[in-house]
Amino acid sequence: MFKKKNIHHKKFGLLKHLQIQAGPWNSLSMDFITQLPSLNNLDSILVAVDRFSKMAIFIPTYGTVTALELAQIFIHHVSSKHGLPVSIVSDRGSLYVSSFWTNLCQQLKISRDL
């Protein structure tokens, strides 16, 4: 007989609707594409997508980015060109739930949808 495999992860929550945005760069979706072939020590891409226009920014980076480095990348490549968003949608990755990133978003009055 086969043994039933125990499930060791949290149950998935209910899906929730994301609000339709009033204008460009008010709300972003952010995530990493990881484990790419390395080129000049860069093996990941940070993807920031404007939820209104669907315009995307692809930022080459490396897989061991810290929360501080994520903030620096975000300021340099996204907010310096398009202003601060009202909200950021992301997964529950360790960078996005870190106390540094949480406090930064609170100080900048950016809501986070995880």
Verbal overview:
This protein has 114 residues and is of the alpha/beta class. It has a single domain, classed as Ribonuclease H-like superfamily/Ribonuclease H (Nucleotidyltransferase, domain 5, 2-Layer Sandwich), CATH 3.30.420.10. The protein has 2 helices and 5 strands; from the N terminus they run βββαβαβ. A 5-stranded mixed β-sheet has the order 3-2-1-4-5, covered by helices on one side. A hairpin with a 5-residue loop joins strand 2 and strand 3.
Give a topology summary.
Elements lengths: L26 E7 L10 E7 L5 E6 L5 H16 L4 E4 L8 H9 L3 E3 L1
Parallel strand pairs: 1-4, 4-5
Antiparallel strand pairs: 1-2, 2-3
List keywords for this structure.
114 residues; five-stranded mixed β-sheet; 5 strands; RNA-binding; RNA binding; Integrase_cat-core
